Amino acid sequence: MSRKLDLPDIIPIFPLPGALLLPRARLPLHIFEPRYLQMLEDTLKTSSRLIGMVQPFDTPNGEDALHSIGCAGRVTQFSETEDGRYMITLAGVSRYRVKRELDGFPPYRRCEVSWEGFEQDRTAHAVPDDTFCRDSFLKILGRYFDARELSADWDTLAEADDELLINSLSMLLEFAPEDKQALLEAPSLTTRRETLVTLLEYALRGGGEDLMQ
Fold it and tell me: For the Lon N-terminal domain, which residue ranges apply (predicted)?
């Protein structure tokens, strides 16, 4: 079932290096900076309750720029701590393309965005990855976890839905912001899985010994 949400032309932007949100996934966030507390307050007053996650990067002249593609999430849960901070959950709705950043009164950043080209994001399921070999993928993942002394619930991973498995790992594993951006921009679940495998293999080869053997 398609998401019937009002997708505004202008959304608040939360540029957070390394934080990846994907469509149909959920991202917990800790909000404590005053400008982002204001952003959350303003967002909760809107019908869409959308916040745009996006990877920032530094230009050669030191400018704090934004990548052209991000993913917007709807605030579905929030709770306030005693000292005024918020714990929120964003449910990924759709990727977007930044058209331009806006100047204005709010202390947080806002962008005019386009949702065109990301219609598949707003359906109930991704197009299936028909070439996915789960056994092979889990072997590579196991070597990666062993190399970094990470633990996992392998029974849950083995039984997880393909999209949930690939997207959750893409969001949770520690990759560089540019690698996270590559995972975000992957046009399909198949290409995201292929990108993830490439990153896992690269990380293993970069460990100083041939961990892929």
Answer: 11-204
